[in-house]
Amino acid sequence: xxxxxxxxxxxxxxxxxxxxxxxxxxxxxxxxxxxxxxxxxxxxxxxxxxxxxxxxxxxxxxxxxxxxxxxxxxxxxxxxxxxxxxxxxxxxxxxxxxxxxxxxxxxxxxxxxxxxxxxxxxxxxxxxxxxxxxxxxxxxxxxxxxxxxxxxxxxxxxxxxxxxxxxxxxxxxxxxxxxxxxxxxxxxxxxxxxxxxxxxxxxxxxxxxxxxxxxxxxxxx
Amino acid sequence: xxxxxxxxxxxxxxxxxxxxxxxxxxxxxxxxxxxxxxxxxxxxxxxxxxxxxxxxxxxxxxxxxxxxxxxxxxxxxxxxxxxxxxxxxxxxxxxxxxxxxxxxxxxxxxxxxxxxxxxxxxxxxxxxxxxxxxxxxxxxxxxxxxxxxxxxxxxxxxxxxxxxxxxxxxxxxxxxxxxxxxxxxxxxxxxxxxxxxxxxxxxxxxxxxxxxxxxxxxxxxxxxxxxxxxxxxxxxxxxxxx
Lengths: 221, 242
Hints:
heterodimer, A: 221 residues, mainly alpha, 0% strand, flat, B: 242 residues, alpha/beta, 6-stranded mixed sheet, 8 helices, globular
């Protein structure tokens, strides 16, 4: 017990930050893929598919991420899978991200003006071709700022993975603090490490939004 | 002469509002037909029904041999035969002029890159915008955008072209450049059906004028009907343009 904060402690926190980063990237990739399916299902012409997607989104958005973490971890264990914490955490984050990003992307796809669909249809493009060549490229541009903004939330929310035993940044900090009892020092460092991870993202998001608004202004004049 | 487009007794409602009332007329190959009438008289709906952007409640529509009211109609085949140009241009903003034009020939008609390029150059030449190949739509004036939209439709080598108030969003100067492109098309023998408010253009180019009123074909005939209207409504409509 006791002692002073030294380079070993700092390296331990850095390792935790690496796990935070890794979990964020994994979760965003998997969550993005599932989210894309959710977005497409939400606007499917087949009503039951739409209902299923709405139910999924409502269910997940109405559940705290903390509970999703527990459910993923214990659910997998009960089902007989003895998985490492990172897998359970990634699963929970994937479900969480897909429900939110799916809704964001659905909105972006639907905000591509209706006549764009029609003129693509009138050029004899099939539904898939319309989506892939005309709608998605335009939706992508609209979706970038809110997506990047949401990624900042994701990075911070990975802290909840500490409850299933993943030694990410927060958990690493708790462990260091337990041996040092220097909460102010430790948590200040943790805060600045989170900031280091998130700042480039929010900066990028702001830049993208600015660029988009400039483009709009140019088009309007 | 054979009818390329035939509408017979077409009815259509949006909910309780009756839009089209037993509309019948036909268009022969090479004809230019102008559909005129007040806003809300059903003119645009007719065009949208002709390429099945809208379905009809009863009656028959046949376009280039496709029976539109049949459930078995092949929509993609229909759209390869029928081009449409909209009031709001509707170019794809993320693609250059050349990409806008070559997209459908390449994807929907499986043309090779070289063929598509050749078609693109040909149609751009026809609308006199070859030098704008690499521009994006937002860099063009409204008139130029509309000419690109016409070129994009032409690139599919349609048998019929529909024009839905294509100059309504343009000032008189830009309207002129779009109309002159359309006149060239008409002289080239293209079958054209246009909803328009440009009476002078209708007089000059149309072989047949269809005056719509309250969802019905109120009066129809050669552009001569604009000079001596038989019905009170057309008299009023023609009079109001002065």
